Amino acid sequence: MRWTYFIVLQIAVISLVVVLVYKHQSKVALVKLPPPALAQWYKPENKRQVWLHNMFKLRRELQAVQFYAQQQNSTYLKPWSEELAAHYLKIGEMVPSWQHKLDKAAIAAITTGVNNQNYDAVLSAINSLQRSCDACHDDYRAVTALTYRSADFSNITIEAAQPFNRHMASLSKQVNQIKIASQDNMPELAISSLQELKLGMNALGQTCRHCHKNERKNYPNEAMQQTLINLEQSLNSGTIKEQARALGTLAVQACARCHGTHRVSADSKKLLLKQPTLLELLRH
User: Fold this and answer.
1) Phi, psi (degrees; rounded to nearest 5) at 158
2) How many CA atoms lie within 13 A of 177 on its CB side?
3) pTM score, two decimals?
4) Per residue in 145-158, pLDDT tens?
């Protein structure tokens, strides 16, 4: 009888969890996080993007094996299939916890098919292997790219040891202060805010150069600098419409384009890697 109560209690708890998950499915997104062992194959823990290079090789080798199997060309098929097997099995060596995810049966079938010149078997095994790769990519590719390939600005400081996020917030305030002063006919305040914005943009540019070392276009680039000149001229002698146009152009050139690349991925990464508290979990 006691076991009956225990089993009923377990069923009730599981049912409650299922109901809660179902009722909140529109508010919760399930994401599979990659294993920590993957970090050692990405920068900065590794000097080279070793994991990515292995993936690139696999993609090329899959295509080559499929191509030469379709052509029934055993001369080129065999060396490409050997490279494919070696780099595919390397996944399990690099991340041991993913050993069980490998479709070793498909690799064995490719090898056997190549040795027996059974090209239909090779093509069938390639299709099976591709489905296995696609399933893993669906689970991990996007979150892995966010985790290891998107920028992390949390440890960056600007001049006077100012945190990066605080500096960016000050730039946003200066842009809005220019707009407010322009709209309310306070040209001196607008121009002084513009001068502060220029200094802030130049300080930010020094930080950008740490990653964008080989790019000819610095921040602020020539187009932004010309827009800054146009904005200052319009604040001195132009109409409110001209001022708004110049400020809007600057916002697109100096803010929106970089945010589209960096801010979206950085914010997503921060949200993804945040460790929720017990209270936050209970609230959800």
Assistant:
1) -100, -165
2) 16
3) 0.72
4) 988 888 888 788 88
